[in-house]
Amino acid sequence: MNSRQRRGVVLLVVSVLCAAAAFAGVVAVVSDARSQVGSKVTAYELSADVPAYTALNASQVHRISMPERWLPDTAVRDLGALQGKIAAVPLKKGSLLQSDMVADKPELKAGQMEIAIMIDAETGVAGKITPGARVNIFATFAPRKDTDPDISKIIVAGAQVMDVGEIKAFDKSEDAQRLSTQGVPITFALDAADAQRVAFAESFARHVRLALVAPGDTAAPPQSDRTYTLAGDAATGGKP
Question: Which of 3, 69, 141, 147 is an S-S bond match for 38, by CB 3.0 to 4.6 Å?
Answer without folding.
Answer: 69
